[in-house]
Amino acid sequence: MSTQRFYGRPPAGVDPSKLTGALIVIEGPDSSGRSTQIALVTKWLEEQGYAVEQVGLKRSFLVGQELEQAKQGNVLSPRTLSLFYATDFYDQFENRIVPALRAGFVVLADRYIYTLMARDIVRGAEPEWVASLYSMALVPDAVFYFMTSLKTLVERTFTAHTELDYWESGMDCGLSRDWFGSFVQYQRKLKAEFVKMRETYGFEIVNANRTVAALDRDLRGRIQLVLDRTQGA
Amino acid sequence: MKPDIGEALPGKLIAVEGLDGSGKSTQIYLVHQWLKSRGYRVFFSEWNSSVLVKDATKKGKKRQLLTPTTFSLIHATDFADRYERQILPLLRAGYIVLCDRYIYTAFARDAVRGCDEEWLRRLYGFARRPDIVFLFRLPLEVALGRILEGRPQLKYFEAGMDLNLSADVTESFRIFQGRVLDQYLSMVNEFGFTVMDATLAVHEQQERVRSVIEERIDLAYFHKRYAS
């Protein structure tokens, strides 16, 4: 039985004492290996008899599609975009994460409020405003931040996609007209925000420059500790 | 994206608030006509949403998927879009901007739905406080009568059906509107609303509204520099 807490007040109608599952968050940039690891961990947890629910960003039924469209056209102001993302987050939070935790699932979140907050802050949002916006989120049982060197990130990105993504390169931020230059600056800024947030939110930093197998072993050990702590014997 | 709450802008912002049926839209319409005919730089901002937000709202409402939180956020998204693309640029350009409903509608309605009041105020913290907010106050029964008489088909969220106040739509609407009214009244001092007696004749109300505006805003400044 874990003791669930919220950063601020929980959303209307959510009773924290009823949330018996565990919420585990994986944070980190694209190509840091998040989805690969989540797939491996899911398999491992299910083998052990845990029910797993996977959630991620931009997957809500409510606005997931609209967000994708908005990003294609890049027509929304930064604040509108961040509120759209917040809507998407809370829709999934209330309709998927909370019910799954109530049913005792282990919820694996492929990114959580921290990515959203970091992106907003890099785009000029006031940190207090952003923190308040997401204050109704549940404090996870663990947050693993996949830290990679920029070199690794660049190599993995080009291996997987052959080109850099517009948003992951922060091209909307006007940092540089050079795509690669913008990618480097943007990822540095995001990383700096994560490092800052680490103090406030207590991330565990995981070295993601390693092989898939090495990272998986490390992660399993850490998750086992979380489950021992929160899910009883 | 920084808030510019403290920064003085050349424009002025006037908002009207009140229950459905309070006659606020008529009053702001008449203000718009008056200021236009006098040749002032004035803009009327309507609650028409961007297409994207409209689609999402429609989808959520149709499937009754919205929780108090997402209901509130989707409207905040919509408001932010309009605020940053329209209201704020107009204020910077030196216009009188007229708003039929503003953030107080969200404060009242979302609080009735159970959202935390502090959270709501911070959520909308980026929006400037208007120079004048008129609250059109009408006894609940009169406002209900006006609406229920003319538009018997109440929509699900409009009637507050998501709050399970009553299985009967009309009864739910009554209770919901009553609570919204209480919220409005509790904000009068907090935000310095100018309360208007909405039981008076339309032209009488308009006369008072105009005199408040003339008193509080130096209209001469807003004369158009170019004839149009």
Ordered list of secondary-structure elements with their pairings:
The complex is a heterodimer of chains A (233) and B (228).
Chain A: E1 22-27, H1 34-47, E2 52-56, H2 64-73, H3 78-102, E3 106-110, H4 113-122, H5 127-133, E4 142-147, H6 150-161, H7 179-201, E5 204-207, H8 212-230
Helix pairs in contact in A: 1-8, 4-7
Chain B: E1 12-18, H1 24-37, E2 42-45, H2 51-62, H3 68-92, E3 96-100, H4 103-112, H5 117-123, E4 132-137, H6 140-150, H7 169-191, E5 194-197, H8 202-216
Parallel strand pairs in B: 1-3, 1-4, 2-3, 4-5
Explain what the structure shows:
The complex is a heterodimer of chains A (233) and B (228). With 233 residues, chain A is of the alpha/beta class. Chain A has a domain at 16-146 and 203-230: Rossmann fold. Chain A is 52% helix and 11% strand. Chain A has 8 helices and 5 strands; from the N terminus they run E-H-E-H-H-E-H-H-E-H-H-E-H. Chain A has helices at 34-47, 64-73, 78-102, 113-122, 127-133, 150-161, 179-201, 212-230, and strands spanning 22-27, 52-56, 106-110, 142-147, 204-207. Chain A has a 5-stranded parallel β-sheet with strand order 2-3-1-4-5, sandwiched between helices. Chain B has a single domain (12-222), classed as 3-Layer(aba) Sandwich (Rossmann fold). The model of chain B has no long low-confidence stretch (mean pLDDT 90). Chain B is globular, with a radius of gyration of 18 Å. Chain B is α/β, with parallel strands linked by helices. Chain B has helices at 24-37, 51-62, 68-92, 103-112, 117-123, 140-150, 169-191, 202-216, and strands spanning 12-18, 42-45, 96-100, 132-137, 194-197. Classes of the chains: A alpha/beta (233), B alpha/beta (228). The interface between A and B is medium-sized, with 35 and 33 residues.
Short recap of the structure:
Chain A has 8 helices and 5 strands.
